[in-house]
Amino acid sequence: MSDQVCPHTARGENASGLSGCESLAAQFRALGHPARLAILRRLAGEKEACCGEIVSALPLAQSTVSQHLQVLKEAGFLTCDTRGRNCHYVLNWDQISKTQDASDAFWKLLNSQQDQSLVGSAKALAANE
To answer: What's the predicted TM-score (pTM) here?
Structure first.
């Protein structure tokens, strides 16, 4: 994760305004499906689970669950301990913590900009009186 969370840039510095946001957006995309959230919730209560155990807990086909597991794994939320032909999935608590920190920083940044905007609006109203 980037140390800066979607920093505000002046015009011309970054025309797209996307610098610093890609990592957090990728994490949000990985979390953007109810099945993936259910998988994380299930694994949070267990040390590990193989794909079959996860499939049995969800009303989805094995292939669909496997795709969701792959997305979570690619995003760093899961690690896979391969034993023979089975993969045992474990939550990567370090990545979860980093995503939470980046998300918290993002919302804090938005809230602080809202506060600044409100102060600026109040000053403008007072100046017009």
So the answer is: 0.75
